[in-house]
Amino acid sequence: MPPTLASVVRTSTLHLTVLAGADHLERPVRWVHTSELDDPTPFLEGGELLLTTGIKLGKSAAGLQAYVHRLADAGVVGLGLGVGLSHTEVPQALVDAAAQRGLPLLRVPEATPFIAISKAVSAALAAEQYEAVTTSFEAQEELTRAALGKDGTTAVVRRLAARLGGWAALYDGSGALSAVAPDWAARRAGRLAAEVDRLRRRPAPSSAALQGRAGTIDTADEDYVVVQSLGADRRPRGFLAVGTEDRITPTERYVLNAAVALLTLTLERSRELRQAEEKMGAALLRMVLAGEVGTARQVAAGLFGGLPEGTVRVLVAAAGPGPEAAEALGELGDRAEQAGGKVGEKLLVAREDGAHGPRLMVLALDNGSVHRACLGAVEEHEGLALGVSAPAALEDAGTAHAQAERALAVAQRGGRRTVDHEEVGAGSLLPLLGEEAVTAFAEGLLRPLRDHDRTARGDLVASLRAWLSRHGQWDAAAADLGVHRHTLRYRMRRVEELLGRSLDDTDVRMELWLALRAGED
């Protein structure tokens, strides 16, 4: 702790007397400044003990009162007036003004030089800094040993809480509580979920400070709480919260910073290991999608404890343009892995940058924790689209992947967050015919018929539509048109001549029918 006015006054060799503001002597003294200016505030930063002989103060009560107000407004913590030179005693008007503003006023006897006061405060400040450095060094050693020990991050949290004389909590990248010390603090740490979630949406590192009776803290608690995000590449990898009865001192801030650095290094080191695991997992996923399930099972048994078994789904997510969407895609992968890790659920994840931008593929249990976490994460972030396959056996993952890709394409075209394959299969193909490429194809295919209808007799387009809608039944189609069936046969031969295609070809009939539907208003 820095020296206070009280500790300065208690220094017996200085012989200082408190004339006013005795109730405010616990204010910390950051420096001692001597000035004979009527207004020294431009040269002050706040927290100073100001010493003066009062040469330019005069004896005017109004002037002395204005002088005191200027000092108090500038953050001066105390005023010392040296007697014996310009003032034989401290003016009563100065005492009254200091008492009114609650500014401690000290009488400095003539025998006490100002430099003696400066030396006393400087020595106390140096001692404080030495203690802070020593304590910080000891804490760093202790926390480092804890981080390298068996319990790792949990041990760091436990040691940090003991060092601060309060409590500490560690949260993972999704905001879920992963470690807390002491155990009784779990309830308090749990109430910080909203604050952690706010930090989760900001680039790391970032922090927030909460005081007692803040909105996220129970009214029975009066802790001073600091929440810090952990991460070195803007994306939070975790969060650290500490709570103490009093404000964190500079020394305690050093200890907290040491813990933040160690936890960040630990999480980043774990991230590198996870990245290696992700590459192996991505390779396994591609093996499964290629139908090499048996080989993938043998490899995964030693690396991941096995593959997801039972009914699975393939999920494919894509990000829109911009770095924020790409970051959201990375967070989606993190959420999927964290959800699986919490309940021990197996999954495979593959990240890739393709021609259409970054993609994320996830193979997870149908309606499991990972599946639900992905759906929730996509709803939270704009710029993401997700395609979900139908439930399938692991051996049919390749087919499921194709389903997820088709569902993703529908989601992207329709501006939707999530599309399930069941929705694609249960819907109609006709809404897709409004795509510009399909419309252009339809116009080009039917142009010879439309040109004919504008310049010659006979409605070939209407005749073709009627004939196709009746599945090639001549009598039924001719009746719909109100013409003889021989007339209709002539028109269909003319259609074949203009298009250069045979209507006996099933593919040709299908393309013509889709072209006609695409051209409808």
TrEMBL record:
Name of a matching Pfam family: PucR
Domain PucR C-terminal helix-turn-helix: residue ranges: 460-518
Domain Purine catabolism PurC-like: 9-125
Top-level taxon: Bacteria
This protein's name: PucR family transcriptional regulator
